[in-house]
Amino acid sequence: MAQIAAQRYTGASIRRSEDPRLLTGRGRYVDDIKLPGMLHAAFVRSPLAHARVLSVDVCAARALPGVVAAFTGADLEAMTVPGPDALSTLMGAAGPTPEFTLLATDKVRFAGDPVAVVIAESRYLAEDGCELVEVDYDELPPVASADFALDPGSPPLFANLGDNIARSRSRNEFGDIAATFAGADRVYDFRIDVHRHQNVPMEGRGCVASYDPDLGVLTMHAATQSVHVAKIAVTMRLGMEPDKVRVLAGDIGGSFGLKIGASREELATAAASRALGRPVKWVEDRTENLTASGQAREESFNVRAAVSNDGDLLGLDVTMVIDTGSYPGMGGMVPAIIEAMLPGPYKLAALGFESVGVTTNKAPYVAYRGPWASETFVRERVLDLIAKDLGLDPLEIRLRNAAPRTDPPAVMLTGRPLAGVTTRESLERVAKLADIPAFRRRQAQARAQGRYLGIGVATFIEAAPGPRSPEGASGPMGSESMRLRLDEDGFVVLFTGQMPHGQSHQTTLAQIAADEFGVPFEQVRVVVGDTDVVPFGLTGGSRSATMTGGVTLHGARRLKAKVLDFASHLMEVSAMDLQITDGNVGVRGDPASAVAVSEIARQAASGEFGADVDARLEVEAVFDGGEGGWSGGSHCAVVEVDVETGIVTVERYVAVEDCGVLINPAVVEGQIRGGVAQGIGAVLLERSAYDADGNFQSATFMDYLLPTACDVPRIEIEHLQTVPLDADVNFRGVGEGGMIVAPPTIVNAIEDALSPFGVRIYEQHLPPARILELIATAGSAQPSGSAQPGRSAQPGGR
Amino acid sequence: MYPSRFRYEAPHTVAEAIRLLAAGGDNAKVLAGGQSLVPLMKLRFAAPELVVDINNLPGLSYHRADPDGTLRIGALCRHADLERSALLAGTQPTMAAAAPLIADPIVRNRGTLVGSLCHADPQGDWASVVLSLGGSVVAEGPDGRRSIPMTDFVTGPFQNLLAPDEIAVEAVIPAAQGERRGGYLKLERRVGDFATVGVAVSLETAGEVVRRAGIALTGVGASTIAASAAAAALTGHSLTAESIAAAASAAAEAARPRTDHRGSAEYKRHMVATFVERILTRCSAEPAERAA
Fold it and tell me: Is A625 left (phi over 0), alpha (psi -120 to 50) or beta?
């Protein structure tokens, strides 16, 4: 295996070069941008979940001093080009496409749906103007649950669909379902629910759109995970040529999947700027963020599990219903990923998977850190439920079912090889770190004193990017490009389409490039966030460690070869005899020959070389992901439940993860800690709640509770770096795993704590009141497995 | 989340503040700590035309005890002052227990006890504490001062007895008849959450006998609830398992909770009984003026 040229920075917890600026308040976020003549947008939003819009009167708003314009849905429709959601198009979503406009015209489909936009000299005045907009609604019956949406009699949200089925029912089978279930000792039936919760970045959505009428160019300052995807959305919806749209992005205060492309509000802001010929800013407030930016995860699963008496999980037959909310987005794409990932690292013989997606009068479904995470929740919950019924230890049932690491690797039932997966190792290690036998003794002592402690283990794998497949590049969303250049100041400059919003690319990519090229870390500049200069790219899907780390490594290697080639002309030495160390080109073994790379770059730029010498010290690199690989790990939580109040305290949390070769351990650990904190929030606190009429109940931070430092314990992390697959690039993504595996880890621990009461848990959200209900109703819960050897399999069906 | 247009005044005397309020009528609001009013204005749930900021009024940030033990808390005394108060820690177990449970440290640095009473939020903690202690509010208006017992002060959710031209300048806790015991417990799903349920218990004891008891409930009704029957179950008795159980069950009966996303009515009622029992059990086990 080839090594990185000099492993000086890669693998070390180099301090983030972003931090001094961000931590001293000198970051530049969208809301920090102030342009001359800039106006402010505020949206009039529907108070109703489902209604026909009879009329929208903006006359009084337009007459308010300070208000420059007010646009209705019909106005915006005339100012833009109809079309589908840009992200859905990019991801190739299947199925019928709902027809809708940027602002509601014919009807509103969730409480918070934008109906009109007021543009004024200040946000204060814009909001004053919104209060003067009169909207006449004809209320329709709200479709506030997936069950009602499945009812053919429910009023369709989109007239052109005719019903509320957003993604039609489909079923796939892998292996022999009938034989597997017929041959099983036991068949279990569970219904498992995952509740609606959401991305809550510190900075919400927002943009400053600035149209220059003289040049006909629209410049958009965006908070986005990809300036290029945002640009595609703007060009499509505003009907502009690509060379007339430029999207810029500065610092971004988190996203977790929310800020992909450009939202309806952002597109409306851009259209308003073009119409008015002035810059317009829209920065969503927290109420808008919670109510209207998007939500995730509302999914239910009917699970049949075929199991042997020894605890072998032989088959799963799963029916999934996903509530995708009102407008199309990520929700339509999630079931296919869940299907592909459901076997996880386990050796299943058969899998049936059926899914249907519905539209409801709730905020749209957006990507949220590990959008397919429910597959891990379902699988890891089911294993614990089965283990309890069979009297097996949760660790034992996992080790028993985990596919062994073989050569060639075992193949997931759904197609991908489990190359380099270290589930067994991480499970054994986390169990050792948590010292489960010692915990069991402590648990018994505590129970004798009326205190209820529990321990939970869960494991996951994540395709970050996934193993190489015969069909093509292993990277999700294709290959990754980068432009690299040696500047005259001696800086290696990387132009990447990654759009960091907490991932630390400015640090980690510089570490790799510095090592591979041979300059100090401080002598690498990472350029992001400008469609005029960076190649296409998207930060998401935990792809950047492998894909961008890889293209950085290969690109720096090529740039170095080019620089040495040029230097060989200059220094009249064979390139073979030259090296770059610490920012200097020199002849091997002759330190006195060293010439600074800046000097080499200045010579190259001098124009004194003929056409036979390539003096352009710049390369464009593309990386297909190489051999790719899986990320994964096992987590363990210890909780205490106060059985009188229902309050759960997470006492200890241990994570053993394997994301291959670490670029920067501190950055990896930060990703895991953040994800686990969100997972703790998802189980104990966070819920995007709607009442039966579709009224949103969680529109403030007093209603949508986020975890604080008081709720998150110190998280102990250990790294495994077991299996190199690629000759050069063995970094794997780690952005989503914490949020994927923390919820089942915590729920498994809570169920363990409550095992003296016979509590069984089939859901993810466990606030204090729910804990007491579970204790009170224990024993009357779902039936456990039935031993029916002769029973014929009845796959799926609701 | 930007407020409507409003006029802002920051007078330097109580008399000037009262004049401004009188002129402003129903459309004027007093700003003390601003921890409730400002969020309401940002959400445009409140849109006063005039905000009278009383932070420039001199001499209102005190909390002190009279020689006879009467406790006085000025209108600009912050939650954080009470949280750090040696006076409260030594003499007012219920208040000392409640102060660190108010919202979060940021809110406690600005918010005031008197402001919390005036806001009359059914989920406000101080109203229960002051009610359990038999306290009152001193209001100052154009005609001078008057004292309003806490039992009368709150007239409904977010409503109080103050006239538009009156300012609540002080809260008063009467001196104890005997030794104080008591506590405040609050079920919050997370630090900074509003109370799902809060219970204030204030006892005044002579030896083992309870001479006066006050029990008040937060978050389980349209306004703060005085659980008088629960208090009566304790008065004249010592704290025994039986009297504690009787008080807990009477308090649960006094609660008028509603099912919402914080929990079912049944759950909240259960929490009232659990908290009354927990506080009284601690009171019975610990020396006076030290209980939770």
Answer: left
**What is the spatial distance between Cα B120 and Cα B138, in angstroms, rounded to a whole number?**
15
User: Tens digits of per-residue pLDDT, A466-480?
Assistant: 888 766 555 556 899
Its pTM stands at: 0.94
| Contact status, residue A564 vs residue A604, Cβ threshold 8 Å | no
* Residue A714 distance to chain B (closest CA, Å): 17
- pLDDT tens for residues A504-563? 999 999 999 999 999 999 999 999 999 999 999 999 988 999 999 999 999 999 999 999
* Domain made up of A33-140+205-252+259-292: CATH architecture: Alpha-Beta Complex (3.90)
- Fold of the B7-53 domain: 3.30.43
Count the alpha carbons within 13 Å of B131 in the hemisphere toward its beta carbon.
Answer: 28
- CA A298/CA A321 separation, integer angstroms: 9
User: A278: distance to nearest CA of chain B, Å?
Assistant: 22
Please give the CATH number for the structural domain made up of A296-468+627-787: 3.30.365.10
Residues of B in contact with A680 (CB under 8 A): none
pLDDT of A84 strictly over 80 = no
pLDDT recorded at residue A2: 44
**Structure confidence at residue A785 (pLDDT):** 53
Q: In the CATH hierarchy, which fold is given to the domain comprising B179-286?
A: Enolase-like; domain 1 (3.30.390)
ipTM of the complex: 0.92
**The pLDDT of residue A795 is above 90:** no
Q: Are A199 and A368 in contact (CB under 8 A)?
A: yes
Q: What is the CATH number of domain A19-26+472-623?
A: 3.30.365.10
Element (H, E) at A166: strand A165-174
| Residue-level pLDDT at A161 | 87
15-74 in chain B: CB under 8 A from chain A:
43-44
* Rounded distance between C-alpha atoms, residue A420 and residue A729, angstroms: 14
Q: Is the pLDDT of residue A744 over 60?
A: yes
Whole-angstrom CA distances from A761 to A194, A777, A780 are: 12, 11, 12
The candidate with the shortest Cα–Cα distance to A257, out of A739, A625, A782, A717, is: A739
Q: Which two tokens stand for residue B232?
A: 């009566």
Nearest to A285 among B1, B190, B191 (CB): B1
Best of A121, A645, A697, A771 to mutate (most B CBs within 10 Å, chain B) = A645
More confident residue, A95 or B225: B225
**A33-140+205-252+259-292 and A296-468+627-787 have identical folds:** no
Q: What is the spatial distance between Cα A641 and Cα A453, in angstroms, rounded to a whole number?
A: 6
- Return the ∠ at Cα A344 (arms to A405 and A329), rounded to 5°: 145
Percent of chain A's residues with pLDDT above 90: 88
Amino acid at A162: G
**Cα distances (angstroms) measured from residue B283 to each of A250, B182, B210:** 58, 6, 11
CB distance A22 to A254 below 8 Å: no
Instruction: Compute CA distances B222 → A274, B131, B158, B219, B225, whole Å.
Output: 51, 15, 9, 8, 8
Report the 10 Å Cβ neighbour count for A153: 7
Residues of A in contact with B4 (CB under 8 A): 127-128, 131
- What would the pLDDT profile of A628-687 be if each residue is shown by its tens digit? 999 999 999 999 999 999 999 999 999 999 999 999 999 999 999 999 999 999 999 999
The answer to whether the CB of B197 falls within 8 A of the CB of B51 is no
| Domain pair B7-53 / B179-286, same fold | no
Give the start-to-end residue ranges of the domains of chain A.
Answer: 19-26+472-623, 33-140+205-252+259-292, 296-468+627-787
Q: Where are the domains of chain B?
A: 7-53, 63-173, 179-286
Kindly report the CATH number that applies to the domain delimited by B63-173: 3.30.465.10
CA dihedral A530, A535, A540, A544 (to 10 degrees): -120
